[in-house]
Amino acid sequence: MKNRQVFGITLHILMWSFLLVLSQNLIAQGETITVDTTSDVEDFGGAQQVTNLPGPDGVVSLREAVTAANNTPGDQAIEFRIPTTDPGFNGSTFVIQIQSTPPLIVGDDRTTIDGTTQTNFTGDTNPNGSEIFLTTTPPLANINGLTFNSDDNAVKGIGGFLQFRYGIELNGNNNVVTACHDLDGLSAGVHINGSNNTIGGTSSGDMNTITSSGNGVWMRAGASNNVVLGNVIFGNHNSGVDIEAGASGNIVGGTAAGARNIIINNGHLDSERHPVGTQVTLDGDNNVVQGNYLGVDATGTSDQSGSARAGLDLSGSFNIVGGTEPGAGNIVSGHGFTNRGRRAGIWIDGGSNNSIQGNLIGTDVTGTSAIANETAILIDVFVSTNIPNTVTISQNTIAFSLEEGISIAGFGSSNPTAIQISANSIFSNGKLGIDLGDDGVTANDPGDGDTGPNELQNFPVITSATDNGTSTGVNGTIDTPNPTTVTIELFSNISADTSGFGEGETFQIAVTPDDAGNFTATLPGGLNGQYLTGTATDAAGNTSEFSQAVEVSGGTGNQPPTAVASANPTNGIAPLLVNFTGSSSFDPDGVITSFDWDFGDGGTSTEADPTHTYQNPGTYTATLTVTDDDGATDTDQVTITVLPLVSVNLTPHNPPIVIPSGGGSFSFDVQVTNNSNTSTTFDVWNEIAVPDGRKLTTVGPLTLTFEPGQSGMKTFTQNIPAEAPAGQYTYSFYVGTFPDNIIDSDSFPFNKSTSPTLAKATADVQNWKLLDAETHRPLDAQDWEASLGKTQVDVVPESIVLEQNYPNPFNPTTQISFSVPTENHVVLKIFNQIGQEIMTLIDSEIYAGRYSVQFDATELPSGIYFYQLRGRNFNQVRKMTLVR
Q: Which of 158-172, 193-207, 830-844 has the lowest mean pLDDT?
């Protein structure tokens, strides 16, 4: 049995999970009111309570149901059972046309309106949405479809809401909206003034689809701690989600995949064709937007930004966009160039102390293909003084923008400052990766005394970058006040930006200059021919543009060795003698001075080609470490699988198993396999470990004989009597020589509930008989062996193995064998000592199995040759010797 590990989750996700569970637990479970007409008539004929329904007309309308729920104490659940003969049924939806006022207001707590009950009644007549559909004509600009002025209510499976001011308005707290499709409204699909409400959920059945003539979800000032997750919010005239100033503590999305909102194709073009609206507008404080797809489809591969001017518009403070935990980052892409009006992935025009972290901006879900924004992140302010925005932009992928990666600009005398940009991957943008002033490269000034966006912080100057093969040494300087308080970040780039001032494709290291502004850094080797750039960030958080790109030059340092480990055989029966080969390892500019083997079972060797015996079954990783004459090392590994002579595996049915106090039974499968290449006779027996410490055997020892490679599986039923003591048991099967020579075993636990008496526990073994699940009678060895259904098992290789050729040395022919565990495209080639290709023996798709091919060297001179086996995700090389 395998242990399960519980991983930590963020405070934000804990909060929305708690709110969702709390809200769902509060859904009404009391009286049920059944709506059976699409009529909007209110016809009680007396008092307006549940007991007065139906009225004189004999049917119950939604309006009557809501009124009765409001006037009746306790919990109410409003369900739907409208017949298809109702005049409001149009073949797919049951259209409830609201024709009168007052509006439908839920004023009593704990009321559920469940449109999915109509689906249960008539079937799925509308596969693309909800069966119950609310609408009105003419437009009721001051009337909502459904208004919740109370707490702890739920609405599910209602669609439409056409021509209302708001489709659903939540003025109360702890309400839940799920499975509402085509949720519309003149001003908003969902309008929220309350707190702790949940829109959607993490299950596919919770998803709402929200598309309106205004905003999709609109949170007004005072709306707090609401959660919007797992929805598709699209085609809204303004913003998909709009969180106003004064709305705080709200969460849009989450780190779980089911919490992701798809927010796309929102906004519109005004009369002058300027883009208006965003996917998400974030004007409030202390809100979280995580794990969403903003401007891309559900696959994360297609531009669906629509006419929105930005994926996210941010003017509030203390907000979090993305995060570092898995699943927290948003995709914000597709807001590309238009002829009128600028567009951006993220547009920041106010606020402070915001965090933008771990997002993919301008890419698809892989982070490597373009879904371009015009500008990835645009920061501008339109006030009359410098604004310390203190925005942190870190660990994002910012790529493929048509214009700048990050543009920081002011207006008039106003300038945003303290925009800290750190450890991002910024590449392949049309203009600068970071642009202070939105005007191209800003040259450094002596002493760094100028002011402007991010105080026009001077960038560093990289004076040298040399790769010696093992490491890359970097030297540089910066001209700025108090250089020891500045952080220099260095980045590597495959190619230089056309401006000559680079971007920052791969973050390498952060260093601090000395008092004179000089700095050094040691980066990994292998950067020869790439380009280094750097940024500088002062103590206040002002980050510079990227420095001029400097190409890394090559050095003459040591090149490390290459370890090549192989083994033969790589699997077999314990005890297993394995021949290891490490002598194929090589050093390109020196010699290998030592070989160090760790066989994975505690054994070691310093020989190049050692042998080792594995005594016990198991899977082992043998590791070879080679060291060259300059002290550089390399490692390679090979996996060895050691099987028992005979193996047994148990698979319980329907775990976890709990036997009731009155006794019972459970079933399980037993698989027995002879792993050897000889006929094998062995015993099989079981053992039940009782909670009081005693052991009980209900079958065996049974003596079986299996032919080489034979395997059999059988299903059994184990009886557990009522007098068995309560507690946890361990059920085991053994193969070997009874009782002490155990070759292999397997077990699983089960539990027994409190027994009525403990006096007879394990006293009557007959009550514990193990029965054949098909014949329902006890087993003996002949019965087992006859019914086990032994079958020959074709052994499929468990790993990729290139074997040593045989014979070796050879003249003129030798056999080369190899094994692959899965279907693959394999290329087998021969090379001479100087690396020239001699011939190709195989180049084709093959199935899993072991293969042999003959190599004829009749036309070749004596010497050492190499043969290479290459395929998808593997490459192995061995050496052979031709002797004439």
A: 830-844
- Residue 511 scores a pLDDT above 90: yes
Considering the domain boundaries, does residue 747 fall inside one? yes
| Whole-number pLDDT of residue 847 | 65
Same domain, 612 and 749: no
Indicate if 781 and 653 belong to the same structural domain.
yes
Q: What is the pLDDT averaged over residues 578-592?
A: 90
Which tokens hold the place of 81?
Answer: 């059972």
Chain segment 316-357, per-residue pLDDT in tens: 999 999 999 999 999 999 998 776 678 999 999 889 999 999
Q: Is residue 545 part of a domain?
A: no
Domain final residue pick, 643, 678, 694: 643
Mean pLDDT of 723-733: 92
Q: Are residues 638 and 650 in the same domain?
A: no
Which residue's entry shows tokens 């709390």? 22
The enclosing domain of 877 has a CATH number of: 2.60.40.2550
Distance CA 573, CA 14 (A): 50
Cα dihedral 94, 98, 102, 104 in deg (nearest 10): 30
Tell me: do 782 and 808 sit in the same domain.
no
- Looking at every residue in the chain, the average pLDDT score rounds to 88
Reported confidence tier of residue 28, pLDDT bands at 50, 70, 90: very low
**Neighbour-count burial for 653-691, b at 16+ CB within 10 Å, e otherwise:** eeeebebeeebbbbebebbbbbbbeeebebbbbbbbbbe
Cβ burial 840-863 (10 Å sphere, 16+ → b, else e): ebeeeeeeeeeeeeebebeebeee
Nearest one of 225, 228, 237 to 208, comparing CA atoms: 228
Instruction: Supply 550's token pair.
Output: 């400097």
Higher pLDDT, 291 or 41: 291
pLDDT of res. 791: 32
Give the model's pLDDT for residue 386. Answer: 46
Domain boundary residue, one of 596, 621, 643: 643
Q: What is the mean pLDDT of residues 748-775?
A: 55
The domain that holds 601 is classified in CATH as 2.60.40.10
Residues 852 and 773 placed together within one structural domain of the fold: no
- CA gap 90, 342 in Å, rounded: 45
Q: Is residue 586 part of a domain?
A: yes
3-state secondary structure at position 267: coil
Cβ neighbours for 882, distance < 8 A, ≥ 6 positions apart: 809, 810, 811, 812, 857, 860, 861, 862, 863, 864, 865
| CA 862 to each of CA 274, 586, 841: distance values in angstroms, whole numbers, following the listed order | 78, 21, 19
Residue 668 lies in a domain: yes
pLDDT at 605 over 50: yes
Domain hosting 612: range is: 566-643
DSSP 8-class letter at 516: T
Q: Which residue in this structure is represented by tokens 């030798």?
A: 814
Count: domains in the chain: 3
Whether residue 682 is found in the same domain as residue 715? yes
CB 620 within 8 A of CB 642: yes
If asked whether residues 632 and 724 sit together in one domain, one would say no
- pLDDT above 70: residue 572: yes
Does 842 lie in the same domain as 782? no
